[in-house]
Amino acid sequence: LIAAPVPEAYYLSPTFNWEYADASGRTPDLDIITYDRIHFAVHSAMLQERSSNGFGGLSSASEPVAVQLSSSVLNLLLHAVYDLSPAAYSPSWEDIGSHHIHNLHL
Question: Which of 10, 29, 46, 59 gives the lowest tally of CB atoms within 10 Å of its CB?
Answer without folding.
Answer: 10
